Amino acid sequence: MQPVRRAIAAVAGLAVILVVALLGVAVWQWWTNRPIDYASRHGDRCLEPGEDDQYFRCWDLLVPSSIDVNDDVAVPLVVDLHGFTGDPGLQRELSGFAELADKDEFIVAWPYGIDDSWNGGGDEWSTNTRIPEVPGAGCCGVALNDGIDDVAFIRALIEDIRTLYPIDADAIFVTGLSNGCFMAQRVAAEASDLIAGMACIAGLTLTEVPENYEPVPILVVHGTADDIVSYESDFWHGAQENIAKWAQRNGCVGPTATVWDEGPHRMDQTSGCDNGADVALLTLSDVGHIAYGGRNLEASPTALAWKFLLSQVP
Fold first, then answer.
1. What is the pLDDT of residue 5?
2. Is 44 within a domain?
3. Whose CB has fewer CB within 10 Å in the chain, the N or C terminal residue?
């Protein structure tokens, strides 16, 4: 009976280890996916709530170890905005800017939108989660419906980072995905005095561009199979109409040329623009909403966007 008892004890021990391991995984998943308390600090760095504000506005930050913060050599800054219901961790994983930052030595900030949303402009939703399929529909969620001033937040975030690190004022860029792309275009329009360029994926411009807008380089990446923000015009204007409006805002009079292609994918870039601020549309054929890669696509859209932005730096 002794061997049988030992076998039973071994099985029981393994069962206990398995249960503990599963509990550990469950606790870890709960911790990493728990709702964020925006009234408390979160992320790597935060701005204190203002007198009329209940939220800490926070962000995650990557400063490559190769950057000497005490050096006078200025480096670029990229502000990378997550999509609706996303978060900085997911955006960091999707976009690939962390890997580029380590390679090319620049700083990246991944801000937190309130309730995982950004006020990209447009008409309010009927609820915080359901977008109305009507012309003028805004994007997105709580940030839109509560009228949160996310442009002011991005401005303050950039100014805070500039007090800590040697940032090149001619190389401050904003990018993002989906709701983050709507927001990136709003930032480019309303903070053109601060932003040196914008490149984003699967979004449009939903706000009026102010009269004091100074043209900045614009690149939008869009998949033709996007079933969330359609490439063609639907209740929102489509990708081509959106980029044509940016070319008009930027005073572009030069030709539009295909500057890159790979199979059915192509980048069309319009030059001869005010401030030398070119406008480009990177069209990814048969690619959906999360267009950081795609079918039969070897090139990285993020790497192409980064190359475009750097090419526009004076």
1. 61
2. no
3. N
